[in-house]
Amino acid sequence: MLNIVLFGPPGAGKGTQSEKLISKYRLIHLSTGDLLRGEILQGTSLGLEAKKLMDQGQLVPDEVVVGMIENKLSANPNSKGFIFDGFPRTTKQAEALDAILEKFKSPISMMLALEVEKAELINRLLERGKVSGRADDANELVIENRINEYNNKTLPLKSYYQAQNKLSTINGIGSIEEIFGAICKSVDALL
Ligand code: AMP
To answer: Catalytic residue positions?
Structure first.
């Protein structure tokens, strides 16, 4: 199995690059942000609770997202692999993911970390907010919160995967195709 953690701050291009990766390598896309927005659309109690935190740019509790990921992994036992997009976002989530994947005997193959500086992220998210309809993209204060959450709680995961020799950093500035080219080079080196 090819299991890729696609990592980077909000606005780094994880969603865009995930779409291209899943079609080229026939993987299943697992985005906890998309799963949570699905719960909100369905009006579930989980969705309602999560929305309060998401609208403020804060992370939802680890147990909530870990549970969602475990369900999706169990539901797709014969997949060629998964792209984890926006997950894990804390060390606890990364440890839980390793434990779940241990059961499936298919560990994380690599972390691809997209690197983009803060001013560019804010511009991209404000632009996306004009069309995405996402409340958390439209407000600069919420965007700041999301980037702070990333820096405080998520960034340490780079060292977590580096310690396992699984980190590959990618320059996230450039055209979508240029960035995808760099990503594919890293992935193909592993195959
Ligand atoms: P995203 O679509 O990945 O930008 O996620 C949007 C929002 O959903 C985040 O700002 C968090 O509030 C929440 N969220 C998504 N994934 C996670 C996660 N793995 N852990 C905690 N909160 C998450």
So the answer is: 14, 89, 128, 134, 146
